[in-house]
Amino acid sequence: MRSFIAGTGSYAPEKVLTNRDLEKMVETSDDWIVERTGIRERHVASPDEATSDLAVKAAVRACEAASLDPKDVEAIVVGTITPDYPFPSAAAVLQGRLGNKKAFAFDVSAACAGSLYALSVADRYVASGAVKNALVVGADTLTRITDWTDRNTCILFGDGAGAMVLKPTDDPSRGILTTRLHSDGALVPILFQPGGGSREPISEKVLRDKSHFVKMNGREVFRVAVRALEESCREVLAAEKLTPGDVTYVIAHQANKRILDATLQRLELPASKCWMNLEKYGNTSAASVPMTLDEANRAGWFKPGDVILMMAIGGGMAWGASVVRW
Ligand code: UT7
Q: Model pTM?
């Protein structure tokens, strides 16, 4: 038995922050941001919107698309690094908001690769028959942990949520074929949030040093990302005896247009096969892959039998790829 993606949904908060807005906040320019990242604007959660508020909207849409009553969901796995509370999980809050009592619910922490990690976990539960369906959500409000005086990072991030409903199928020709995940914990310092955890609990010093915000070595992340994404895409395709030429569409974490262009070029995949939306949303962390999948799906991109290659990388570093036959 395999699991397949029976429905998708997404949500981005209403407020839009443009590059021009950022020009007024830090020493940057629309031209620089567009040239170096491809991002033109991003959505920002309002002060009364937390991660689960975005997640609920995406989840309800995905359940509707999959003809599944949210109360009948049996497992909820949320990829996030910005849960509403340090504990319990955003998944628990989401479950409560959905009025669901049947599911077990937990978060997966793999930064921008969070939804791919969550998908991999939920896939195992559904494909093994342990549950009849699963709700996978990627949701983040990275703007809450962004230092708005740091031009290296504040131009990149936006908020959003994406969701996928997984159901089982006996049809061997469709579904989630292979997913492979990787981590390299030696790379923690190149992208992390040093303060606010158990090493440096919130204190006046943490606030003064701004260590409760995302810290990133952009160049290192860039270098690691291109190599890691290419390798894991080749790995999942090879596991299914497929080549990049067999790929119908690419759904990729929207980190930076240049990272994606370089990865696609190495794989000899035309950019036209990759749904891009980072110009509108920026890097939405764990939300990025399911938001992108939902946009492409609702635009009518996917037909039965299409081979879809998904990839993501984020802090940890944590990365992976998945190959799905629609
Ligand atoms: O999901 C994973 C999350 N992270 C990422 O995907 C980040 C991956 N990395 C990147 O996207 C890129 O490294 C950035 C977009 C963050 C930066 O682009 P870059 O081409 O690597 O620029 P750089 O860091 O090498 O900086 C080049 C110059 C520097 O000036 P000097 O030292 O050459 O005088 C920076 O100070 O650009 C300067 N700079 C800026 N200028 C205008 C850095 N940020 C900005 C800015 N506006 N926002």
A: 0.97
